[in-house]
Amino acid sequence: MWLTSKIKQVLLVLKPGTVTLPYPFEPRPAPANFRGQPYWDHHKCIGCGGCAAHCPARTIMIRDVCQELRVMVYDGGRCTYCGRCADVCPENAITMTDRFELATDDKADITQTMELFMATCSRCGRCYDHEITNAIDRMNERGYRYDNLEYRVVIPRGTEHLDDDLLKKTETYKRPERTGE
After folding, report:
1. Which domain covers residue 105, as residue numbers?
2. Does residue 66 belong to any structural domain of this protein?
3. CATH number, residue 110
4. What are the pLDDT digits (tens) for 81-98?
5. In angstroms, rounded to a whole number, what is the distance separating the alpha carbons of residues 107 and 8?
6. N or C: fewer beta carbons within 10 Å in the chain?
7. Cα(86)–Cα(71) distance, rounded to whole angstroms?
8. Adjacent-strand bridge partners of 71
């Protein structure tokens, strides 16, 4: 009696056939409008910093090395793939790819760094664009940024003119070890 019931169970389980995907060998394609790892097109980027200002995970950091050079760093280890950076980019320089399997031993594999030359006016020192309406003027955070790229710290402070003292101070900035420091 129990033997026939076990045979019935085996036949019931074998009837549908294979129902799982052969995942590691044939990955399933990502659906339409899937938000994977962001991709930066450095030819389109104007360095306005809107992506860094709107990133909820603070994965995009900006440091102005001098008046003409802006360094942007994307730390993919902290990214939640929300897509806000792509939504706010005025030049569509950021697009969301379908890459999501990004496990790696080396953090440099998921970190992107861009060095942008900022064209500045010789009279006022402001960055400019060749359009009539400048995308930098439409952003909330204007001026020079001083994020610490080595320790991956966003410093929410900007100045109208490049401040060498603040630049040196933020180079040695470290995160507080205890609450209240």
Report:
1. 35-171
2. yes
3. 3.30.70.20
4. 999 999 999 889 999 998
5. 52
6. N
7. 18
8. 63, 115
